Amino acid sequence: MGRTVPARPPRAPVTPGLNATNDAALPSPNGKPRRRQDDGWLDRWALTVSDLTRLTNTHPMMDAIVEEQRGRRIRIGDRWLADFASCNYLGFDLDEEIIASVPEYLAKWGTHPSWSRLLGNPRMYPEIEEQMTELLHAPDVLVLPTITHIHTSVIPVLVGDGTIFLDGRAHKTMYDGAMYAAGHGASIVRFRHNDPEHLAELLDDAMYPSPRVIAMDGVNSMTGNAPDLAAFSRLATEHHCLLYVDDAHGFGLIGERAPDEACDYGTSGNSVFRHLGVSYDDAVLVAGFSKSYSSLLAFMSLTTPLKDALKVLAPPYLYSGPSPVASLATTLAGLEVNRRRGDLVRLDVWRKTERVLDAMRDLGIHTPNTSGHPIIEIPLANHAEIDEVGRYLFEHGIYVTMAAYPLAPKSEVGFRIQVTAANADDEIEELIAVLTSLKERFQLEQLHPATA
Ligand SMILES: Cc1ncc(COP(=O)(O)O)c(C=O)c1O
Known about the structure:
Elements: H1 41-48, H2 50-58, E1 68-70, E2 73-76, E3 79-83, H3 96-100, H4 102-109, H5 124-136, E4 140-144, H6 147-159, E5 163-167, H7 172-183, E6 187-191, H8 196-204, E7 212-217, H9 229-238, E8 242-246, H10 271-275, E9 283-288, E10 298-302, H11 304-313, H12 315-318, H13 325-363, E11 375-379, H14 386-395, E12 398-399, E13 401-403, E14 414-418, H15 425-441
Parallel strand pairs: 3-12, 5-6, 5-7, 7-8, 8-9
Antiparallel strand pairs: 1-2, 2-3, 4-10, 9-10, 11-14, 13-14
Helix pairs in contact: 4-13, 5-13, 6-7, 13-15
The structure holds pyridoxal-5'-phosphate.
Residues 146-148, 171, 173, 217, 221, 246, 248, 288, 290, 298 line the site of pyridoxal-5'-phosphate.
């Protein structure tokens, strides 16, 4: 059920303890108005993301409290819904074998040894890094708690006072890492999304200082499509740049190709470089375990000298609390399950995703997804309908990710379906039935003739 929130007053009320201090009555020390006095600063922030603020305050599919879950069915209030907003693509969050692996590690290590990595590494860390180096066929691997930690701490080290060439639609966390680097003296240059020709023009311009880093996504978190990584890799080598790729959504799902592969995702789930046959020379791959492996941990592929340098240069290695023991345990168990039956799980995700994509083709509903990846974005022809469309889905028992502005550009506002191995076939059929009736009531983008 949606929460109704009283209409906001035009100005933020003064909240004791936040901005109403006794000091506020005193003259400001520098003669300027006190920044946090009753000046509406929080409302101004809220205004910059007003669509999202409104939906977050009023929409049942935003900021929801999930009371319980059974498989991929979740209960919000008194309503049960099929969850298509989960990024646990392989269903490892619900895998009995992986869940059963945790208590043994907790008994050995407690819940949380709390050392930063520099202070002490439970043995699980080198084990994960060794297994990941083997899985990725990378020179070496470094793990840190999250991708966000990696972007904000590693991009500034890689670029120094040089230039970051940032894809125009790079994930916000990478953008934030670039901004952090800019604070340390780097320049940021944006290139058109997925456009190696535009990037080549910019790289030809000698006015952008070195070192140079090209930063972009692997499998895109909205479209589900991968870039032409080989073209970007060639540019990186020709122009003496480092290619920095965030494949949060590809890792675990897509992997190296094999003649006997069961589906188009390839095998092993060892990420976009191996999937597209692109070398790690002049490149760093960043991804996480928090989607496909359902564990709070992230990693980067890199050379051993860079890894050694980051151990003393990247603040999360030196200072941040570590991932919980349960997450290190589920990462190790997930790697084991991946070796034994990962390809079967991927086949299952692929089959369920194909069923949804086929049905959408039959219905004439457009999605930018051309890859068959289980991220299916459905843009609305009229973005003002986002609120009602979301309510319709919710009331018909389907939970999705709302892609409201600024999570998506205004022209692409809509919703995103994620299919996971843990979604049962009857949930997939329910989804298709609801999409069928949704299309009768709302203006979805029509299938483009080229993809029809
Ligand atoms: C492409 C991409 N990068 C980074 C992140 C953030 O990852 P983490 O939670 O590990 O910081 C996300 C999360 O949605 C993502 O989609």
